[in-house]
Amino acid sequence: MEIFNRNDFVDLSKKKANPFISIYVPTSRQSSDGYKKDQIHLKNQLKDVTSKLEQDYKMESSQIDKLLSPANRLLEDHKFWQNNSDLLACFLSEDGMDLIKVPVEIKDGQNFVGHKPMLLPMLPELSDDGHYYLLLLNLDQIRLYEATRNTIQEILLDPEEVAVSFTAEEEEDENQKQLHGQGGVGKAGAMYHGHAGGSDEEKKVTILNYFHRMTNMLEPKLNNNPLPLILAGVDYLIPIFNEATKYNHLLEGHVSGAFGEKDMMTLHQKSWELVAPHFEKERLKRKETFEQKSADGLALSNDKLKIIKAALTGGVDTLLVNTNHKHLFGTYDPENHQIATSDKQENGQHCLIDEAAAKTVEFKGKVYMVKEENMPESAQVAAILRYPL
């Protein structure tokens, strides 16, 4: 799995077509039925989309078959389903198909047909609310995971892009010294001198140099979608890593122990025990911040059209969306700064709440999907503003 970051989200949000189809289906990491259940989820969504295209877009069967053919071919591609995450997002238009697999839980499949992608279900992937990275510091091979309370998945790191193995570099360096009688160039592309037989202090310096190289390669990837990071590994490696890292979202504490490739589920359980208090503290902090900003006229929860206008023009710092919100269909006139709403979707209209969320992300704000009981005044949307309206 690769990191789905904010830039990917923004690029996707700018795509347009008529029609543009968004499909989300829950998927399984492991299956006892050959992933048939996952395939049925997608098949059912495609059937529903077909009905919408016939009724709402008056499309001929041949046109629909051509548009949906890339997704229909997935139903026969058994290898595709063997590398699932928890959510499959499928976007279809005349320009082809985009597929994204992410560790985000959804209960049921859903689809949306309009003129642009529906992206609200993807927002938890970008949010730091309950979403975190776990970095296993194993000198044979570091491993990076993305996790939530109920999910975890490894993010595969390319050895050509990130120095993933201290041991491999040291062995390569020793081989180079035997061949040439001097230090060699390791995998990471920097001059590297092994000290396998040196003192503990020399070994510490060697590991620190490795961590400097590794973090310089890894952290730009993390910063594309910055989430809290928790470490795992034997105790003596943690302070060495902390000396090397510049990542601004590293959490205190670590999962202590010598772990390897087969310990992912243990790491997940132990890491969640460490990060859960952090997320609860952040939720309380957001609630307090909202109340303070509201008193200053910089937060809204009782005027969704005003909030949407602010979001569409870059005025929202933090947008809160009720997980049980209802679609609000309509159009926005940027020249007159006016919104027209409809009781139901007409002429391929998009959900204005989804548009507000996408624009908030584009303007480098934050968006959180919030349970109704935690929403201010149980509102559909609420916002912390960048400036008074």
Describe this structure in words.
Pfam families: baeRF_family7. This protein is α+β, with helices and mostly antiparallel strands and 389 residues long. The protein has 3 domains: 6-125, Translation, Eukaryotic Peptide Chain Release Factor Subunit 1, Chain A, CATH 3.30.960; 132-282, Nucleotidyltransferase, domain 5 (2-Layer Sandwich), CATH 3.30.420; 296-385, 60s Ribosomal Protein L30, Chain: A. The chain is 38% helix and 23% strand. The chain has helices at 6-13, 36-56, 61-74, 123-126, 166-180, 200-224, 237-244, 264-295, 304-312, 352-362; strands at residues 20-26, 87-93, 96-102, 110-114, 132-137, 143-147, 152-155, 184-185, 191-192, 229-233, 250-256, 299-300, 316-322, 329-333, 338-342, 350-351, 366-370, 381-385. The strands form 5 sheets. It has a 5-stranded mixed β-sheet, with helices on one face. Strands 3-2-1-4 form a 4-stranded antiparallel β-sheet, with helices on one face. A 4-stranded mixed β-sheet has the order 12-18-13-17. Helix 1 (6-13) crosses helix 10, helix 6 packs across helix 7 (237-244) and helix 9 runs parallel beside helix 10 (352-362). The protein is globular.
Describe the secondary-structure layout:
Blueprint (H helix, E strand, L loop, with lengths): L5 H8 L6 E7 L9 H21 L4 H14 L12 E7 L2 E7 L7 E5 L8 H4 L5 E6 L5 E5 L4 E4 L10 H15 L3 E2 L5 E2 L7 H25 L4 E5 L3 H8 L5 E7 L7 H32 L3 E2 L3 H9 L3 E7 L6 E5 L4 E5 L7 E2 H11 L3 E5 L10 E5 L4
Parallel strand pairs: 5-10, 10-11, 13-17
Antiparallel strand pairs: 1-2, 1-4, 2-3, 5-6, 6-7, 8-9, 12-18, 13-18, 14-15, 14-16
InterPro entries: Bact_RF_family7
Pfam families: baeRF_family7 (PF18849)
